[in-house]
Amino acid sequence: MAKPLLEVKNLKKYFPVKKGILNKKEKFVRAVDNVSFEIYNGETLGLVGESGCGKSTTGRMLLKLIEPTDGQIIFQGKDISKMTDDEIRPLRKDIQMIFQDPYASLNPRMTVGEIIAEPLIVHNMYKDSEEMKKRIHELLGMVGLSSYHSVRYPHEFSGGQRQRIGIARALAAKPKLIIADEPVSALDVSIQSQVLNLMQDLQRDLDLTYLFIAHDLSVVEHISDRVGVMYLGKIVEITDKDTLYDNPLHPYTQALLSAVPIPNPRIKKKRIILEGNIPSPLNPPRGCAFHTRCKHAKDICKKIAPEFKEVEDRHFTACHLY
Amino acid sequence: MDKKILEIKNLKTYFFTDNGIVKAVDGVDIHVNEGETLGIVGESGSGKSVTSLSIMGLLNDTSGKVVDGKIEFQGRNLVDLKEEDMRKIRGNDIAMIFQEPMTSLNPVLRIGKQISEAIRLHLKYDKARAKEHTIEMLKLVGIPRAENIYSEFPFQLSGGMRQRVMIAMAMACNPKLLIADEPTTALDVTIQAQILDLMKKLKKDVGTAIMFVTHDLGVVAEMCDRVVVMYAGRVVERGDVYQIFENPKHPYTKGLLKSVPVLRQKVERLASIPGNVPSPKNMPKGCKFAPRCKNVFDKCWEEEPPFYNVEENHSSKCWLCE
Amino acid sequence: MSQRTVREVAKPNENEKMEDIRTPFSEFWRKFKKQKTAIVAALFICLFFITAIIGPYIVPYDVAEPDYDHILEGPSSKHWFGTDAYGRDIFSRVIVGARISLAVGLSSVLVGAILGSILGLISGYYGGWIDNVIMRIADVLFAFPGIILAIGIIAILGPGLYNVVFAVAIFSTPMFARIVRGSTLAIKETVYVEAAKSIGTKDKRIMFKHILPGTFSGIIVYFTMRIGTSILTASSLSFLGMGAQPPTPEWGAMLSSGRDYLGVASHITFFPGMAIFVTVLAFNLLGDGLRDALDPKIDN
Prior knowledge:
The complex is a heterotrimer of chains A (322), B (322) and C (300). By secondary structure, chain B is of the alpha/beta class. Chain B contains 12 helices and 12 strands.
């Protein structure tokens, strides 16, 4: 078995919340609670879950945009979770991010050329400004834009084009791992497929590894090799794509999959309608976090949190049913 | 013959901005039959939301204006109505639910008050009866502890609960037509499943006609009887849900259907529609889809195609169907 | 690395022409040119600038040379604004005074703006105790009425134009610091700053390349209005005898020297007073117009 490019072990992020002025006792939002997974070279790991499940926080911790509370992030054999800003800066070249909102993630006061040049300047990659310009034009070409776009400002572009600019910026420093946080969810349907295809082409051509964070199960299925499902700060199930979609084990994964509307009017799906809402991560339920909405919930689920274990070959889940 | 409850004829809604006229809706014909669910599908800029705002007469706060066409609702042309008469229809005969439930609920008014005021205004109920009816509505949309929720504020509810409140408010006066503009887009998949389930149940029990505006083809396939596809301010294809999904005729509809990833339908590469929606300043002369169409030929650039009937109740605005 | 695949995707609308490039400036200009009052104010300020630059070379009379044959004369074709108690031409003195007022107004605000912006940027970006220290000092300065603060500073440093500049700069600083801190706090949380951090951009570059330009619109608006206020304050200090000393043709000093003749020759105070009034008004109106044009929320 090859060594993983990135290994996450027991990653935790607790955000402190102060309740009132008098109440000194600190409470914590357990945004990410004991998450472990690996990403192998050249693959796409999809991370799905509903809003507030901690998937974006996880992605941001890998880039150290959010400081982890506890746990290890081992990238190419080095634990980066406790590195200082200066130690980590050279490694930043290797991990880049694509953001959800193509409107907010580009500085409106910089031209497209300046935006794409930023990583090149920050990492001092080109001494010669002509060569840097050539590189910017090459990057624009790679994402399907033209060189003359480099002198324009982001607001002149449509959402899909802006996301291409964001991708060009992420590619500029020749990264190994790209963390894509809902990269297509703000885009129109016909533009989504353009960006997904582009990401797949780039992965093939440039030997990229993706962590693809999204809430859309169909999109995640399309682009991923393996998929992890998150609920309330924890990964409840992780395995390769086909196993997960054909044979989901965790009741939450089952409900999630059954809830996806299928664009085919003949298919009348039997749907597992989950009752109620996602509990607050401020007061997660004791035992299994999902037991409040799970129809299989037994007494043990209310008391003891299930262990995350390999139930089938390379198929991990955290549920007392198995 | 189905009875038409709403008939839009040659609707033109233009926005008058500093940078010129934006023809958001330009000659749209749509009708809704009694008791049916009509899906209006389109991407941003297709004019689908502007169409629903035009019906509701909610363009006053914008630079938009209906410049031509008729919106006939139960024999009355809504375009000519005075604001005062329109207000009587709005919320009473035609109700609307929006994408973002938080912005359409008044944050400083208790939930019960917001609903019961509408009931007292339109149905002329007294205070006690209005309260009773409100709680009944809240129960109908599946809100637990309806009596308690009655005196709570919108911020105390989750997104899914707020959308339920919006639906309760919209349905409170027994509207004949419900316009739902992307009602589940802001919600999580499992919550979306709850809301869709609820809307189906309400449709079956109450028999309200629904105009369902969305970009999500899965939701359309599941919810709608008939579908209207919009592009660049025009209707490009209309038919029943089976015709549209199984035998699409317009290249845009075909492209749209192929460009969405579908659960468990393994495709290596998504088909995509190249290019972007044309900007209002650069509208092509002939068919508005011509620049992105793979079947384009000379005539498409010259002249805009009319509607051609391809089957019973199925027509497409494309020269290929001539 | 080469482009191996030919992308079948999206060449973006090729029919967009290069002419309709919309830069942030053209956006600003589109909105600004609708502000008629502000444009008039801007034209007046241009005139004021030109006067300040070339004024001393074109004035008909020497501003310091007394002419005892023509004292306290009212406006006439020879002396448009009349003469003062020493027979000096008031029109010439007002013209030459424009340069002093502009120099004092501009330089004091410039110093205040640079100092305040840097402090505000640091305060907003780093937060914590640095923020606390800087903002509490700003609060203390805010607690003094500006003019009293300036008088205090001059009492320590002694009267003179340079000290006026310094005093006015000191009490302009906290407001700039607050404005810049506020925008910094907002911009710090934007996704594009997060994106810059994710790339590995250093703090200094984020502060000056990504955040500071975003605060410019607020700075420019306040800068413009502040020039007016500073001219007023500087004139007030001179009026009180703490700034420009006679016979310098400073507007405030001229007001002061005309004070004794208010009953017999009101034109001595009227014309410098008008100059102050019109100039301050013009800067304020321009500031208003700039705010409307620079605020992204105001867009018809």
